[in-house]
Specification:
Largest sheet: 11 strands, mixed
Order of helices and strands: EEEHHEEEEHEEHEEHHEEEEEHEEH
Distance between the termini: 45 Å
Shape: globular
CATH class of one domain: Alpha Beta
CATH superfamily of one domain: Pseudouridine synthase
Radius of gyration: 21 Å
Length: 301
């Protein structure tokens, strides 16, 4: 059993070091050697970039370990130099990187915006191992939307995902905290979206006028003040959920642009909770999720 790896542990001021004795995946290995930590704490250590294998930071849960490899677990304050602002890595391989983005972080900068972005931070990160490395935008989340987002790490993966997005992406689930009590427990919203000269999206009153958008929702919990919805995207149009929530008379809390009159959670009430997709190279179905913000749950009780 891997627990005998504890005999090889070397305690230092800033890190713990283990030598792998048997083939095993990284997360189960960490569970076995960090017996004094909860499973969630161990997962957090991995997600925060505190684990390196032969001097390379690894955040992938199912990364295969081989006998003789050295696993180093750094204290959090030491690992901070490798941390990011407003994001954490959920998964990384040779073709894709999946992140959990905080509300307030731009996905990518516009010509007028030079702020820190997810794209820039990940670009800097991959170039640490090779200056030629790059990341590519595959889809975006609005600045004030939090949750799961994916980037490609090469042109092949980017083109494969973008050209066959609808076939490859099997699930995109959002949590939306909206104003008022939604009476219909579940439903589908379908419209044709267009954009104004001021870059605001809206549903055209005419059929076939614009881009077709379809949103499915169901109520998770609600009170007289607001409702928490699980939202499934059938299409992925710009600001689709925000427009559709306004269309049914329940704008997303904090979304002044699309009809909200309040912001008592100090952020936009939209969170990308799940993305599931076929890997562009292996074809394997991968699924990643981000914890629902506690404010969403507490507000809609």
């Amino acid at each position: 059993m891997q627990k005998r790896n504890k005999k090889t542990e070397q305690k230092r001021n800033n890190f713990m070091q283990y030598t792998v004795k048997e083939p095993i995946e990284l997360l189960p290995f960490l569970f076995e050697v960090l017996t004094d930590r909860s499973r969630n704490a161990v997962k957090s250590i991995l997600t925060r970039g505190q684990v390196s294998i032969n001097d390379q930071v690894i955040t992938k849960h199912d990364h295969p370990l081989k006998p003789g490899q050295t696993v180093v677990i750094m204290k959090n304050k030491v690992a901070k130099a490798r941390n990011f602002t407003g994001l954490s890595i959920l998964h990384e391989d040779a073709d894709v990187v999946v992140i959990d983005k905080e509300a307030g972080l731009l996905s990518i900068s516009s010509p007028k915006e030079k702020a820190v972005t997810a794209y820039r931070q990940l670009s800097d990160y991959v170039r640490q191992t090779d200056p030629k490395n790059r990341v590519f935008i595959v889809h975006r989340l609005d600045r004030d939307t939090s949750g799961v987002m994916m980037f490609a790490k090469n042109e092949y993966a980017k083109q494969k995902l973008q050209n066959a997005w609808k076939e490859m992406v099997k699930e995109r689930t959002y949590a939306a905290l909206v104003e008022g009590k939604v009476q219909k427990r579940e439903g589908t919203i379908s419209s044709w979206l267009k954009e104004t000269s001021t870059f605001k999206m809206y549903s055209s009153p005419k059929a076939n006028d614009g881009q077709h958008a379809v949103t499915h929702y169901k109520v998770i919990q609600s009170n007289q003040d607001c409702s928490l919805l699980e939202v499934q995207l059938e299409t992925g149009r710009k600001n689709q959920i925000r427009v559709h929530m306004q269309d049914i008379g329940h704008p997303i809390i904090g979304d002044k642009k699309y009809g909200s009159t309040r912001n008592d959670i100090n952020r936009l009430g939209l969170h990308a909770q799940v993305i599931a997709f076929h890997h562009p190279t292996s074809g394997k179905l991968l699924r990643f999720s981000s914890d629902l913000p506690k404010t969403f749950l507490n507000k809609s009780k």
